[in-house]
Specification:
With about 140 residues, the chain is α/β, with parallel strands linked by helices. The chain has a domain of about 100 residues: Ribosomal Protein L13p, Chain: A. Helices cover about 30% and strands about 20% of the residues. It is built from five helices and six strands, in the order βαβαββαααββ. The termini are far apart.
C-alpha cells in the first residue's frame, strides 16, 4: 500500500470568518493555527500546506485572562546599540490589536518556509467589517 498525498489541484481551500469577541487569546490563536495548518482537513499532510484561509474580526474585543494585560511584555530589537523596545499587552491592544492576534497565531505555526506560507492565509481586522465578502466565507464558531 502507498500513502496518499494530495496534489496541488486537489486542495480546495475554504474561507472562514472567526469572531474574536470574548474569546481567550491563546485558545483563539491555537484554533486558528490548526485551521491554517490544515489539521481540520481530512487530507492533512504535515509537509504540504493543506490549510484554509481565516479572517478574524473584532480583534480589539479579544479576552485577556488573569494578570496578562498588566504583566505580559512584547520586546523587539531595532538592531542598534540600546535598541531594545518594550511594550506591554494593554498598550498594544489599544494601539494595534490586530498585531496581538497575528503574533499569537504566527508563534504557533511551524518555524520554516511552510509556516510563513500558512501565515499569509490569515487576515485580522479591528472591527466587524472585512473586504473578503467576495470569497463567501463561512462563519466558524468555537464552542
Amino acid at each position: 500500500m502507498s500513502t496518499y498525498f494530495p496534489k496541488e489541484g486537489e486542495i480546495a481551500r475554504k474561507w472562514f470568518v472567526v469572531d474574536a469577541t470574548g474569546q481567550p487569546l491563546g485558545r483563539l490563536a491555537s484554533r486558528v493555527a490548526r485551521i491554517l495548518m490544515g489539521k481540520e482537513n481530512p487530507k492533512y499532510t504535515p509537509f504540504i500546506d493543506t490549510g484554509d484561509h481565516v479572517v478574524v474580526i473584532n480583534a480589539e474585543q479579544v479576552k485577556i485572562t488573569g494578570m496578562k494585560a498588566d504583566q505580559k511584555v512584547y520586546h523587539r530589537y531595532t538592531g542598534y546599540p540600546g535598541g531594545l523596545r518594550s511594550e506591554d499587552l494593554k498598550k498594544r491592544l489599544v494601539r494595534k490589536p490586530e498585531l496581538v492576534i497575528e503574533q499569537a497565531v504566527s508563534r504557533m505555526l511551524p518555524k520554516n518556509k511552510l509556516g510563513k506560507q500558512m501565515f499569509t492565509k490569515l487576515k485580522v481586522y479591528k472591527g466587524d467589517k472585512h473586504p473578503h465578502e467576495a470569497q463567501k466565507p463561512e462563519v466558524k464558531v468555537f464552542a
